[in-house]
Write a structure and sequence with these properties.
Blueprint (H helix, E strand, L loop, with lengths): L15 H20 L4 E5 L5 E5 L2 H15 L12 E2 L1 H8 L3 H9 L6 E3 L2 E5 H28 L7 H14 L1
Antiparallel strand pairs: 1-2, 3-5, 4-5
Helix pairs in contact: 1-2, 3-4
């Protein structure tokens, strides 16, 4: 079966069989990524001709991430960071409504440019904004969990759980 050609920004949804194959490939490459500093992939053609490819580690990690998502049956999209998005595409990336995104743009929280009467947003700027708010959320969550521990609200940190497990093991 020949691979289909996908246009930029168009999601690729794997079939059930592709998801199974992606899962098997993911397991092999995921193990390899942790055991090798110089990733090499060997490709065997129909005529049994073998070709070895040296890959940048970042490309191999990306491939492992793609295979992981495909194995779950998730759609995968490849988009260059310099791609210009419509407000709807940008809103979809952030999982927010288009009017909410437009408010963010008008409040100058995310840069944009006008093309005629339409707003265009760089994918890179959406990714940067998402990373910024994710980091902010993590900091607030950490602060809240520390306060909950100080107030003895019954929440236990991972560090406490690990220390408790170590303590139990040392006693047995």
């Amino acid at each position: 079966m020949l691979p289909s050609i996908h246009r930029e920004n168009e999601p690729f949804i794997p079939t059930h069989q592709e998801a199974i194959l992606a899962g098997e490939s993911f397991k092999i490459l995921n193990e390899y990524i942790h055991s090798s500093s110089k990733p090499t992939i060997q490709i065997v053609g129909k005529d049994k001709h073998k070709e070895q490819l040296m890959l940048p580690m970042s490309a191999l990690r990306f491939l492992v991430d793609v295979l992981s998502e495909m194995a779950k049956g998730n759609a995968v999209t490849l988009m260059p960071v310099h791609a210009e998005l419509t407000t709807q595409e940008a809103a979809d990336m952030l999982n927010v409504s288009r009017p909410f995104l437009v408010n963010l743009l008008e409040e100058n929280k995310i840069p944009y440019r006008m093309v005629g009467s339409r707003r265009r947003v760089l994918a890179k700027d959406i990714i940067d904004y998402k990373n910024k708010i994710d980091q902010s959320r993590l900091e607030v969550l950490k602060e809240l969990s520390e306060q909950a521990q100080e107030l003895n609200m019954g929440y236990v940190s991972r560090k406490t759980i690990k220390n408790t497990k170590k303590y139990r093991k040392s006693r047995t």
